[in-house]
Specification:
heterodimer, A: about 250 residues, alpha/beta, Rossmann fold, 6-stranded mixed sheet, 4-stranded antiparallel sheet, 12 strands, B: about 425 residues, 2 domains, 9-stranded mixed sheet, 19 strands
């Protein structure tokens, strides 16, 4: 699905990623954990195509294509989805209208016909139920006046609508209470299939009680320094990140 | 002496214009000529013209021809009462008018009927009075609820100077809605100068829609003088979508208590367009509400000016007045001068004003692109939503649909 090889990236001349390697296959859930400043959100931003970051070395292959050559919108059209850590409020742009535009632009890219109004509304109803998002929120302006939990549920609702091959959840658990966390996680689990994959970026192990990863990676100082299974997350929770830092710094 | 005359641009500009033959009160016309004879075009040293240079207009010479014949099939509201002008000539009007409504060319008005025309002595208003060729006199009788919208279309062709004067009087407890739609059929240098004098009767509801969509080579200067009687509700929606140079002056005198005044404006500019909106709402008495929202999108090397004044006079207590101007600059060369002003002399009022000017929210654009929307569509979505905030204050769906269509044709934005 996605192969990241020796990825180096800078922002404003400062090197953030220093040779990151990661491979995710269809049907898998990967968790990326790590202390603040390790480069977790930078990785998500680069994969989504934020232009502030400069890739200086390495490659990212997404479904056989060179991801770094694609525009942000073409990455989304190829099936990459980023659930934003801080979803943006867009006054006056209705959630539903923008999703219809997105869906149809993706379909056009794939050479498919636009979705009919009837099918679209049926899809909105079906998918908003997955994250228990009030249909009123679906028709309001994008994220405007949404609570923190509603914004994150809206991210997962959009993911459900767009049915990406690879979803990257950037700190989706941050700021969520336990109920919202459970709803968001259950949404992600319902959307899981053998054809798609998920990368969960998180600081805390808590989310991984609900979204059970196949692999857990520790990102530290711009590289993945340790990979394990879900038990690694528990170990990190118990011992903290200093344990990893010490181990890495010792080498 | 010779030098003084040759440097007076206004005199040169007026040299070939034909004076009005309408039945305006003589003293008003003479006052206008006296003013024009002793003044020149205002410069940027004049407070009301600080950010708007008139050189584009002052150096041009215009015609005043009489020929006019065009076929207009445009109709915004299916069931409207439509009046079509071409270069100031009334070429089409309804055969019948509903009871309670009088509409006629001001060429057919008596001096008594034209007694209410405003005579503020500034260059364009004085020129309007001195050179008016036509316009409509509209009278809505007391207790008339006009179900049909009055739709006035003005087309220009050629390098015409057209001065139009409209007089609108709405009787007590009446309700009416009027569209002023300005279009041009050629990329020529016409100048349309319109003054509309409005008396809003007691307990009356009046909505005016002013749509300016002349070509990018045309000039438009217009002024609305509004006087509101007690318990009345007046709304003006000004939409400026094209034109080389557009200056709008709105002056609302709220003379009676319990009035509501709504001024909404939207302007979308590109190329080297210059659009200037000056508004005044004068709360002279207590217990009134005014809302003002102007939003603009400025691209390329275009310039927008907004100057909104709200006065609350000494005894005008319990006034709620809200004013806001917001602009998005789409290019590094676009310019906005925004000056909201509140002058409050009463002590028990609730007033606010604000002005914002910024770039398009790039985070919002990125967010939409990250969902698969092209950069162009994403920008259009964000910017059209921004301006739609002011456009959608229009309650008439047919008018809104027409404006959306014009915006789509010209800018490719979908709503």
């Amino acid at each position: 699905m996605i192969k990241i090889k020796n990825l180096h990236a800078n922002i404003e001349g400062k090197e953030i990623l220093k040779g990151l390697n990661l491979e995710v296959n269809a049907g898998e859930i990967h968790a990326i954990m790590g202390p603040n400043g390790a480069g977790k959100s930078t990785l998500a931003s680069i994969l989504a195509g934020r232009e502030e970051y400069e890739v200086t070395e390495g490659s990212v292959e997404f479904d056989g294509k060179d991801l770094l050559e694609l525009s942000t919108e073409d990455r989304a059209r190829e099936g990459l989805f980023l659930a934003f850590q801080y979803p943006v409020e867009i006054p006056g742009v209705s959630n539903v209208n923008f999703l219809r535009t997105a869906l149809n632009e993706i379909r056009e890219y794939k050479g498919e016909e636009p979705i009919s109004a009837k099918d679209f509304m049926a899809k909105v109803r079906e998918k908003s139920a997955i994250v228990e998002l009030d249909s009123k929120l679906a028709s309001r302006s994008v994220n405007e006046g949404f609570s923190g939990g509603e914004k994150k549920r809206n991210e997962i609702f959009q993911m459900a609508m767009l049915e990406p091959k690879l979803a990257i959840l950037d700190e989706t658990d941050s700021g969520l209470d336990i109920d919202a966390l459970r709803i968001v996680a259950s949404g992600v689990n319902k959307l899981k299939s053998p054809e798609n994959a998920t990368i969960v970026i998180t600081h805390y192990q808590r989310l991984l009680d609900y979204i059970v990863p196949d692999f857990v990676h520790v990102l530290y100082d711009g590289r993945i320094v340790k990979t394990g299974t879900k038990e690694l997350a528990l170990e990190l929770e118990e011992k903290g990140y200093d344990w990893i830092k010490n181990e890495v710094d010792a080498n | 002496m010779q030098e003084v005359i040759s440097t007076n641009k206004l005199a040169a500009f007026r040299a070939n214009l034909a004076s009005t033959t309408l039945a305006f009160p003589n003293d008003k016309v003479s006052a206008a000529f006296d003013f024009l004879n002793t003044s020149d075009f205002p410069t940027t040293r004049h407070e009301n013209w600080k950010y708007t240079r008139l050189a584009r207009i002052a150096n041009l010479r215009f015609d005043q021809t009489d020929e006019s014949k065009i076929d207009s099939s445009l109709r915004i509201c299916a069931d409207s009462l439509q009046f079509v002008f071409h270069n100031g000539n009334l070429i089409q009007q309804p055969e019948n008018l509903p009871s309670g409504l009088t509409v006629k060319s001001i060429q057919d008005c008596s001096t008594e009927e034209l007694a209410i025309v405003s005579t503020e002595l500034n260059t364009f208003e004085a020129m309007n009075l001195a050179y008016t060729s036509n316009g409509l006199f509209i009278q809505v009788a007391d207790k008339t609820n006009l179900e049909q919208v009055i739709e006035i279309i003005h087309y220009t062709t050629g390098n015409e100077f057209v001065a139009l004067r409209n007089v609108i009087q709405t009787g007590a407890l009446s309700k009416s809605e009027i569209i002023l739609n300005y279009l041009s059929l050629e990329d020529s240098n016409s100048l349309v100068n319109v003054v509309t004098d409005v008396e809003v009767g007691a307990g009356t509801h009046l909505t005016l829609h002013k749509i300016q969509a002349e070509k990018g080579t045309n000039f438009h200067v217009s002024k609305e003088n509004i006087k509101q009687d007690k318990d009345s509700n007046f709304s003006l929606h000004t939409t400026t979508l094209n034109g080389n140079f557009v200056r709008n002056d709105v002056n609302v005198a709220v003379n009676g208590q319990n009035c509501e005044t709504n001024l909404y404006g939207a302007y979308i500019l590109n190329d080297t367009q210059h659009v200037d909106n000056h508004t005044v709402i004068d709360h002279k008495v207590a217990h009134c509400l005014s809302n003002e929202l102007y939003k603009g999108v400025i691209d390329d090397k275009a310039t927008a000016v907004f100057n909104g004044k709200v006065f609350v006079r000494k005894d005008a207590q319990k006034i709620n007045a809200f004013q806001s101007n917001a602009n998005v600059l789409m290019s590094d060369d676009a310019t906005v001068y925004s000056k909201p002003e509140l002058e409050i002399y009463a002590d028990d009022v609730k007033c606010s004003h604000g002005s914002t000017t910024g770039q398009l929210d790039e985070e919002a654009v990125f967010y939409l692109r990250a969902r698969g929307i092209s950069e162009k569509s994403a920008r259009n979505l964000v910017v059209s939503a921004f301006v739609n905030d002011a456009l959608e204050k229009t309650e008439n769906e047919e008018v809104l649909a027409y404006i959306y269509l014009l915006v789509k044709e010209r800018f490719g934005w979908e709503f």
